[in-house]
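Collaborator request, handled under Task 6.
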Amino acid sequence: MLEVCDLNVFYGSIHALQGISFNVNEGEIVTLIGANGAGKSTTLRCISGIVRARSGEITFRGQRINTVAANKIVEMGISHVPEGRQVFPNLTVMENLLMGAYTRKDKNEIKNSLEEVMERFPRLRERSRQMAGTLSGGEQQMLAIGRGLMSKPALIILDEPSMGLSPVLVEEIFNIIKKINQQGTTVLLVEQNAFMALQVASRAYVLETGRIVFSGDAAEVQSDPRVRSAYLGETEECAS
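Structure tokens returned to the collaborator:
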């Protein structure tokens, strides 16, 4: 479904992504894990057209999207839920959700998608007329995901969906991610909570300073001593 090949991104003289390559197959949850500054968010921004790569190729369903405008990438079926939620604080919950459908024209289909989102997130229905800026962190994250789903994506990209949330809400968000996937949406997930990400993902890639240093099935990545030490907070003695 998604192929990233030899991607290089620079911020001025800083070589942020150094020839990374990976793929996401239809129906999967694939996670990118790594420390702050590893290049995870930059990778997602390249895919969604916010950041332009200096070289390399990104294809989605066989079509190259490197030079496609961000709004056209949404129309092609990729939705990006950004780090930090980025809801519109001075718009209501309902208005935020409708903003997610801005590329769609069929009002009946938009109405059906809205109902699906409200069923998935009952709290958003309860707060549909409330200003988004007054929601709790967990509710804002649900709103951001709901808004992302309003474009009816084939692939949803989630950037740090558990950031700043309590453990109970983290578990709830990851249960939502699993359900979204089970209902037919492919997921590319960036997470610093490597343990939770590897619990839900089918495959994982580990980024360090702009390079992919390890990849494999999620269970294989989780059992690797280097990953356990660097990202799961375990020493070799603890892991044994």
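The cover message to the collaborator said: "The beta strands are 2-11, 14-24, 29-33, 55-60, 63-64, 78-81, 155-159, 186-191, 203-208, 211-217. The longest strand covers residues 14-24. Please let us know whether this matches your experimental observations."
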